[in-house]
Specification:
It contains four helices and 14 strands. The protein is of the alpha+beta class and 259 residues long. The N and C termini lie far apart (44 Å). The structure holds magnesium ion (2 copies).
Amino acid sequence: MTTRVKTATEILAIRESGRMLASILSKLEVMVEEGLSTKDLAVVAERELNVLGGSAPFLGYQGFPDVICISLNDEVVHGIPRPDKIIKAGDLVSLDFGVNYRGMITDSALTVIAGKTKNRQQEELVKYTDVALDNGISVVRDGVRTGDIGAAVEKVLKSKGYGIVRDLVGHGVGHMLHEDPNIPNYGRPNTGPWLKAGMTIAIEPMATLGDEKVVLEADGWTVRTRDHSLSAHFEHTVLITEEGYEILTLRESLPNLKG
Ligand code: MG
Ligand code: MG
C-alpha cells in the first residue's frame, strides 16, 4: 500500500496518535535504568497506552509478540521484551514504539544510555544518530524525493564514520505500520519517489560503531550487528506540509530529567 495524502480528519487523528506516542516514549526514556528488565518497560508502555485510549500496532504485527521493541547494545531493532533481559549500566537501550488511534498509526524510536556513562564514543553515536534524523527531517517539504531525505541522513552519519544499516529503512506510515515508499538512510538527491504534502512518513536512521551488516537472531525477530558493534536508532513520524513538515511524534523537552 502506497502512503497517500491524508484527509483533514485523518490528520487530526494521527496528530493525537503522535502525541500519545511521544508522551509514552518520554516516560520510558527517563525510566530506563540498570536492574530493570526490558519487559518491565514494555508493561509500562502497554499500561500507559491503555490509559490514553490508543492501541498497539506492533502487537501481532506479522506475529510480533509485544507492544514495543526494545533492543540493547549490538541489537539494532525488533528486540522482544523479556523479563530475564536485565538492563546494565552503560547499556544502549533502543525503544521503538507505535500507536494506533482511530485507525491512524504513528511510529517513533529513540536510544538512551542506561546510567551515567562516561563513554564518549557511545554518547556521540547516540547524539549523531539523532542529529542525522533531524537533518533528514530538515529537507522534508511538498515535492521532496526519498533520495533527498536519505542523502541528508547519510551525510551526517558518514561524517562520523558510522556504519549505516541498509537492510532496514524508513517508510510511509498512517493507515498501516509500513506503507510504500521505502525511505533509505542513504541516497542521492533528486532520486527516488516524490512525496507530497499531506503524506505521513517515518524517517529512522540506524547507525553502528562498526560495519553496516546485520543478522537475524534465532528468535526470528531481533536484528543485531554482524560484528557485534554498538548501534543506535532514532525515528519520528512526520507530516509533509506545503512549506515543510510537522513532526508528529516530537517529545516535549522535560525540564527535570533524571541525572
Ligand atoms: Mg519504529
Ligand atoms: Mg518504522
